[in-house]
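Notebook entry, cofactor series.
This is the third protein in the set we're modelling with a bound small molecule. For this one the ligand is 2-acetamido-2-deoxy-beta-D-glucopyranose. I'm keeping the input format identical across the series so the outputs can be compared line by line later. Sequence and SMILES below, as received.
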Amino acid sequence: MYRVLLLLFLLGPALIGVVNSHHESGEWSCETESEIRVQAEFRPGLVTLDGRADDDWNDVEGFEFPLLPALDPDADHVYKAGKMTVKALHDGNDVFFLLQVDGDYLYSKGNSNKCASVALMFQIGEDATYHNMGGCKEGSQSCTSKTCKGHEVDIMHFSIGNAIPGRLYGGNAIDNRDGNGGDRFGHLVDVYGWNPHCRYLDGIGPSGNDTSAQNDWKGAWWHSSFTVHSGFVEEDNPYASGGQKGTYYFEFSRPLRTTDRLQQDVQFTIGGSSMMSAAFWYPVDGNPWQGSGHYTINCDWVPFDISLGSSILTKSAPKSSATSAFALLFSVVSLCLSVFMVYRVSKSKSEPYTPMENL
Ligand SMILES: *[C@@H]1O[C@H](CO)[C@@H](O)[C@H](O)[C@H]1NC(C)=O
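Returned structure with ligand:
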């Protein structure tokens, strides 16, 4: 609890700083504070990927961000229902994310633009900027893996219009057999891009396809207004009555490393740092959202750290001091026992030696 308060205290000025950044007409400007970041601690066996965050994520630190329009991060147009909380952890193999946003429940089956939606974006290429999704200067006709080399970004986008809450979407055997980042069931897709006009499913490209690609993401969504917990099916939609106050939860996982050979997936390193962003689409006032009408957590990349597993050892310091106390007690007992044995042996010296055979 204290750590969360301390974090909020430290992050507070940073978040205000983010609000101040503003897209002046024409020229893009972004003032971001160096303190903001998202950290994934090593916490194996904590999270079940079911969209529900009410129990398993409780003692994981969250990082709060105001949601400003991505194309014009003006504080006047902040998403008013609340901030986005980003939580992350890893278990040594997979990295897990939770995106949590307050919002009245809205659902329109088959029409993702009338439902909430989220995306994660990561830097792959060294020259990939947050602004303009990689920032390659080429247009949609001329962007290729060669002309935009170094500007690659990795994107996971989840549009929930066909996704049943609590069910797992993303990489599946059928789409992965086709060798691309698609998800025909729930539209939780694995995408890469060089700029907003040059975005493709992993494996699909302007100058040809490569079927070695996969959708490496998995994820689920939930809303706190749901009362059924035994498992929804499609016929249950819209799953709850519309307009109810509550919180959306989006939960994701991906292997730290993937089999990507095309520079279309970010690769995470334990103890290393990457650059990320998170986006949110919402049908504000019931109006369907447009692709470019999204909110993001910052007007620049947010550093994303994958903590070393050893951080958990530092945490268990009180336990190890208890262990040393036990070790000390154990040595004292052993010492006493040896003194007693020496005494017994020296006392029994007078007793005659009995050969084994006579016993
Ligand atoms: C690549 O795959 C996409 C989607 O399946 C398809 O529309 C396109 O025609 C393919 N391109 C080539 C060059 O085969």
